[in-house]
Amino acid sequence: MESVVVEWVSLITRWTHITAGIAWIGSSFYFMHLDAALRGIPEIPAGKGGEAWEVHGGGFYQVRKYLVAPDRLPDHLIWHKWQAYSTWLSGIFLLGWIYYLGAELYLIDPSVRVLTPLTAAGIGFGSLLVGWLVYDGLVRSKLAKHEMALAAVGFVFIVFMAWFYQQMFSGRGALIHTGALIGTMMVGNVFLNIMPNQRKVIADLVAGRLPNPAYGKQAKTRSTHNNYLTLPVLFLMLSSHFALVFTSPYAFVIVGLVLVAGALVRVFYNIRHAGKSDPWWTWGVAGLCIAAAIAISALSAPAAREALSLDALPDPIEVAGLPPAPEEIVGIVQGRCAMCHAATPAWPGLTVAPKDVRFDTAEEIERWKPVIGLYAGRTNAMPPNNVSEITPEERHALAQWALLP
Ligand code: HEC
User: Fold this and answer.
1) Which of 14, 337, 379, 401 has most ligand 1 atoms within 8 Å of its beta carbon, as the pocket-test mutant?
2) CA-CA distance, 255 to 242, in Å (whole number)?
3) Global pTM?
4) CB 184 within 8 Å of CB 132
5) Which atom, in ligand 1's list, is nearest to the CA of 336?
6) Strand ranges inside 22-176, DSSP E
7) How far is the CA of 228 from the centre of ligand 1 (A)?
8) pLDDT number for residue 129
9) Predicted pLDDT of residue 234
10) Hey, whose CA ends up nearest to atom 9 of ligand 1?
11) Is 6 touching ligand 1 by the criterion CB < 6 Å?
């Protein structure tokens, strides 16, 4: 019963989180596009907003932007905020549900740092709040006058935090927290800056005062930051499912490369939608960043490090020049993996094999060969946080068996 609840809560909250995220990012992309596409019209002088025509779903839309505000408050006003709030709330729930309640499997890696689940959760959640305070402080500081300087400091801060998380948590835990940190900055922008500023403008309109243009400007700055961060944050959320990324000791460098690549792709669209030009170079540089990320992940994986003899392992099998015997492989996998990956797992709390990856028989083990090679040979993604204490020699044997031609 318990496992049914766990499974369904995990599925339904992910479903909610992804749906809310799609709605939020969709509206962010839409409004950035709209803003870039606005053209001045006689009723709205240059610099005070503009108008765009759009065609969608069998009709034409005439959308106008008024900066800072129209002369009077319209009767019916649509707000866009719950997409952001529900993405964050469901995301924080998932973080707690998977990483804090399941800290021993997902968050705490004793070879990185020995932490109690409570301390780990405290560091994780606390860092999100601290991260927001630092980011908000930066945007309010004098530094913010220079856009590029702010971007550079923000970039260094996020890469530093990714590195910091790698000193605290498992690989997956580090990447998910880096993603959650950026997500928290983004939703903080909506909740603590954009929305309050919009409310102030409305209060001014209602009171018949002229709203301060600074409010609209600040909100636009924050929403532009959010736009540049969307693609990196999505990558980070997905990366905790990909062993080559989350097991890399240089994952923080990959984070930096993805921040640049993701922001550049948004730069391309923002310039293109403004009708200025098509800066294809942005795609070129983004592609180079991703190529570098791929190379770093491949070269820094444990097995590859060994191939480059950066940390050579004394391996009797290799010395003898013999590939590991099939019985040896079955022995390793059944000894180190099958307590979880079996038709009836013995590991407490598991009722089905994770991801239906089962190693009950030699045939099943053979079927999963390439994946075992990736998760337990080339990288150390499995066993999670090495709960079953697989040795480097055993990993090496798995890598030899699965990865060598
Ligand atoms: C403590 C239990 C446990 C042990 C021991 C364990 N695994 Fe896993 N394994 C998991 C869980 C949980 C997942 C699902 C992770 C997730 O949700 O992304 C998983 C996922 C996998 C996957 C699928 C990855 C994917 O997302 O497609 C492979 C392959 C795998 N394990 C291989 C191994 C190998 C090989 C070993 C032994 C060297 C091993 N596991 C040991 C719990 C375990």
Assistant:
1) 337
2) 14
3) 0.89
4) yes
5) 37
6) 49-56, 59-66
7) 34
8) 97
9) 97
10) 354
11) no
Summarised one tens digit per residue, pLDDT across range 289-325 is 999 999 999 888 766 666 544 444 444 444 445 678 8
Q: Distance, CA 382 to ligand 1 centroid (Å)?
A: 5
Mean pLDDT of 286-291: 98
Nearest one of 194, 195, 260 to 222, comparing CA atoms: 194
Q: Is 264 left (phi over 0), alpha (psi -120 to 50) or beta?
A: alpha
Q: Residue 399 corresponds to which tokens in the numbers above?
A: 């890598």
Collapse the DSSP code of 10 into the 3-class scheme (helix H, G, I; strand E, B; otherwise coil) and give the result: helix
Domain ranges (residues) in the chain: 2-37+82-274, 316-403
Residue 347 and residue 339 in contact, taking contact as beta carbons nearer than 8 Å: yes
Q: Render pLDDT for 316-366 as a digit per residue (tens, 0 to 9).
A: 444 445 678 889 999 999 999 999 999 999 998 888 888 889 999 999 999
Long-range contacts (CB closer than 8 Å, 24 or more residues apart) made by 4-7: 6/349
SS3 241: coil
Alpha-carbon distance of 301 to 306, in angstroms, equals: 9
The secondary structure of 101-112 as a DSSP string is TTHHHHT--TTT
Ligand 1 proximity of 94 Cβ (cutoff 6 Å)? no
Is 384's C-beta closer than 6 angstroms to any atom of ligand 1?
yes
Q: How far is the CA of 210 from the centre of ligand 1 (A)?
A: 60
Name the closest-CA residue to atom 27, ligand 1: 355
Q: Which two tokens stand for residue 316?
A: 């009797």
